[in-house]
Amino acid sequence: MYRMKRLRTLGATWLCLMLTLVFAASAAAESGPTQWSPSVVVNNIPQYTDMGADSKNVLPGKYGSQYGRLLMLDNGDWLASYTIYDNNGYKYDSNGGNKLQLSRSTDHGQSWTVLATIADPGRDLDNAQMVQLDDGTILLACRSVIWQQSYKLDVYKSANNGASWSYLSTIDENSGAAGSLGNPDKGVYEPHMYVLDNGDVGVMYANEKHVTESPAYSQIISLKVSANDGASWGTEIWAAWAPGDSNARPGMPVWTKMNNGEYMLVFEVCGVDDCNVHYQTSSDGTTWSGGLGTLIPLQRGAPYVAQLSDNRLAIVSNTHNVSFSDDYGATWYVDDTAPYGSLFGGYDNLWASIYETGTNEIAVMTSAGRSAYNEYTEGHNVQIRLGTYDAVSTGIVSGAYYKITAQHSGKNLDVDAGSGADGAKVQQWENNDLPPQIWQFVAAGGGYYKIVNKQSGKLLEVSGGSVTPGASVTQWSDIGSDRQLWKAEHVGGGNYRIQNKLSGLNLDVTAGSTANGAVAEQWTENGDRPQRWKLVPVEGGIVSGATYKLTNQQSGLVMDVAGGSLANGANVQQEADNGSASQRWIIEDMGDGSYKLTNAQSGKCLDVDAGSGVPGANVQQWEDNGLPPERWIIEYTGSGYYKLTNAQSGLALDVAGGSMSAGGNIQQYTDNGLPPQRWELELQ
User: What is the pLDDT of residues 92-101, one digit of tens each?
Assistant: First the structure.
């Protein structure tokens, strides 16, 4: 486990190692897809005068708020749990100790209100983490400790969205006489629950109880499963340990189900591997092979992993970096805009966690130091920061514009110096959103495309029509040659292999370079990341007469006709995607700059009720009457999203109140540039 008392003993040596790792991670950063919003403070307990260091040598009055974890509730609210000190600790007060506190946000994390506090008088509570069951019940697991005497992992439940809590069960425990469970410690810590496919609740945790057994294990990761919603727990299952190595300390477990159907468990390995982060996988979530798994590079201490809906994995740790994997952990690349690493520097931001909070949006919650590195004199507060990233295309729209981004470097295919000349060098360059980095895909038949540079209007081609590996890629005027045709094959995780028709060789970056200006070439297929490219939509290419799914940027829910109704006046709302025809819309270009959207189920048009020009007027479906309330102007707004403006009123298609809930109403409203008015149009 990775606890503050151990940080203090490691001192300057550990800090030096951490700084080295942070700088190395920055130098090796391979992608920067995320743009981070300003931080929001979730909770910040003010400092107060205490009676002295507590049983774990922490000053309660300087502690603040730490170890934040987030749960997005079914009703759209966000619930945060974290640890606080508001007393002198049980060393000086028999009813004292760390407490857990819950805060709620009803505005997508922009403001927070304290909702409840959980205490176990005379014990330290910490390491809280939550899940919500199908019936709405919230379970919270935490550690409850009297150091070197009693260690428990307790579960509390709430039936009212976190407003009040009651004790439910104990997952595991180890208790004895005062001081009997120290030297070495024999505790249990850091529970992390996950709801399995069959509805059972599993919990991973760090376990020192086997340290004096034979063979001895300083710490392992254990798993228990509850078949009755957390009321009781089954026998211990070993998930991660190091056979034959009593010094290895796998800990801080977090796990998730991946989109390929397997489960991933991430954890730090202290004692023998400097708390570097490893992972294991399981086919069913309850059967684990043991050992210490596979290293995740450039992540260290207290990891947290999330499965994103675009099939990527995202992970964060005490390095302050966010890494992504497009291939379920086989390879990882580091985002070069770490959300908290530059706030104060050093080692002050701890126990980060990461979540998908909307379409192309993630959030990182962290315990941020309240001044330069010294948590013992200034403490922490809990902060959250939202990040947005570009959508990755899994289907190419002819006529649409894309950035072509190298997977290995995160840099874009670019025409050198924006040249308009035939034969100008094509290279990779860091993102600047300028026309030399924007390419139009134009279908040429047989699955091939012409790839046209927006700046020059010239085509991507293999220089001289060479069929030799290593031949450079340039731009040239359209000459109708196969050397200017390319096939883009989706290979998973939003990545494409782009293959030249004439040579059959792949678009590649010379020597796998990550440098600005590295030349694009063609090369034999080798499966390496310099031959894998993301196609990031940057401008529209609406295919008239095609069917689309419209997904709201704020909620991630799709535009739907309520109840699949066929009637005139049926309400239009947002709903979870279920693949039905009532959630699909045929978009037709009317030739005057406007579009008609026809529901694929009912054959009726997207319409503003009574042709109203008032903000807040309802949006419905109605039979086609050819009038402006049924016509919409579609404008690309960047990052894969569009604004739809009614041709009659000039108001934008909007989710009322920015609702995150299924059934949230769709209306028209004054354009405010916010995510409830931005829509992803996905060709079906």
Answer: 999 999 999 9
5 within a domain of the structure (yes/no): no
Residue finishing a domain among 515, 539, 563: 539
Is residue 608 very low, low, confident or very high in pLDDT (cuts 50, 70, 90)? very high
What is the pLDDT confidence band of residue 390, given thresholds at 50, 70 and 90?
low
Q: Per residue in 117-174, pLDDT tens?
A: 999 999 999 999 999 999 999 999 999 999 999 999 999 999 999 999 999 999 999 9
| Spatial distance between the Cα atoms of 190 and 169, rounded to a whole number of angstroms | 16
Q: How many residues does the chain have?
A: 684
- The predicted pLDDT at position 399 comes to 76
The confidence score (pLDDT) of residue 336 equals 61
Residues 6+ apart with CB under 8 A from 30: 333, 334, 336, 408, 409, 410, 514
Question: Would the CA dihedral through 293, 296, 300, 303 be positive or negative?
Answer: negative
In sequence order, what are the residues at sequence separation of 6 or more whose Cβ sits closer than 8 angstroms to the Cβ of residue 360?
310, 388, 389, 390, 391, 553, 639, 640, 680
Cα separation values, 117 from 97, 351, 365, 403, 547, Å: 13, 20, 19, 48, 50
Tokens 């109203």 belong to residue: 612
Query: Measured between alpha carbons, how far is 472 from 276 in angstroms, rounded to an integer?
Result: 40
| Residue 472 confidence class, pLDDT cut points 50, 70, 90 | very high
- One domain for residues 27 and 74: yes
More confident residue, 152 or 326: 152
Contact 533, 520 (CB under 8 A): no
- Asked which of 481, 512, 539 is the last residue of a domain, the reply is 539
Q: For residue 46, is the peptide bond before it cis, meaning its omega torsion is within 30 degrees of 0?
A: no
CATH of the domain at 476: 2.80.10.50
Question: What's the rounded mean pLDDT across residues 467-476?
Answer: 98
Q: Are residues 18 and 146 in the same domain?
A: yes
Spatial contact of 573 and 560, defined as CB atoms under 8 Å apart? yes
CB-CB contact of 563 with 570 (8 Å): yes
How many C-beta atoms lie closer than 10 Å to residue 44's C-beta?
16
415 and 468: one domain? yes
Backbone angles phi, psi at 166, to 5 degrees: -135, 150
323 Cα distance to chain centroid: 10
* 451: CB partners within 8 A, 6+ apart: 404, 439, 440, 441, 442, 459, 460, 486, 498
The pTM of the full predicted model, rounded to 2 decimals, is 0.62
What range does the domain containing 425 cover? 401-539
Residues 470, 363 share a domain: no
15 pLDDT above the threshold of 50: no
Residue whose pair of structure tokens reads 């039936």 in the numeric block? 159
In this structure, the answer to whether residues 504 and 648 fall within a common structural domain is no
Is 298 part of any domain? yes
